[in-house]
Amino acid sequence: MSNSVALEPPDVTRAAGHVDVNSLQVVPVRHWGRMISAAVLIAIVAFCVYGFVVNPNIEWSVVGDFLLDGGVLKGLLLTLEMTVLGVGIAVILAVVIGVMRISESRILSGFASIWIFFFRGIPLVVLLIFVGNLGLFVNTVSIANPFGTAPLVSFQVQQVVTPFVASVIALALTGSGYMAEIVRAGLLSVGVGQHEAAKALGVNGGKTLRYIVLPQALRIIIPPLGNELIGGLKASAIVSVIAGGDLMTAVLGISGVNFRTIEMLIVATIWYLLVIILLSIGQYFLERRAATK
């Protein structure tokens, strides 16, 4: 066993076959395999980091100069905005689709299944390009006014669906396909007895879901949803294909001028990692809070 110990009786007093247990010294068993593996792993990581830092082909001064560049920080802000909006809308859609997925209605359940299948299956970059060029397929959207000739609402799709809006929509739709299954798994984790007890007390289905089922399902839902938030942040880098103004778009634009692509990608990586660290810390405390309720 990993927690086994060796007992060494250095000065044990034996009197009439009696051993003084209090004088026994507990010596932990040394796991030489673990120690050697850890030393080798540390050596490999140190060698890789050292080789990367001292590489003469990387100009770290460029990384330092552009780490706090105004264009980079603006791209970072847009990345955070589209990630929060995209994931927030995705969570709302996921709850609705997840509830529909476990509905007894075959129509609702079938629609939810098709939604999940489609938006989990289509690549994000394809959906992003399609939504970004939606104005090529639908020029104008109008809502007729039944009491007059002028429409209630009329707008040009190409003017409304900007690269930022297209990015938020694509992230939300793609994320909803994955998160809906997370929500469904969380809802199914609550025992049937909870529903039966609520029904016996005269609580309707909506209140049962809101006040009984969802609070208990949050313990299952929150950890993978946190991972989806981090995944949404990283997926936002694909927005650069339609020049969405995000962090990746900003660093690639700068690299097109100074021709230091690797250094600018390092700048983007540093910011992505810093944001992910903050999100991971927030997820940790959120999971602890949900676990205590």
UniProtKB/TrEMBL annotation:
Similarity remark: Belongs to the binding-protein-dependent transport system permease family.
Molecular function, one GO term: transmembrane transporter activity
Any matching Pfam family: BPD_transp_1
Limits of the ABC transmembrane type-1 domain: 76-283
Gene Ontology terms describing biological process: amino acid transport
Cellular localization per UniProt: Cell membrane
Protein name (Swiss-Prot/TrEMBL): Amino acid ABC transporter permease
Membrane spanning stretches: 35-55, 75-100, 112-137, 157-180, 237-259, 265-286
Top-level taxonomic group: Bacteria
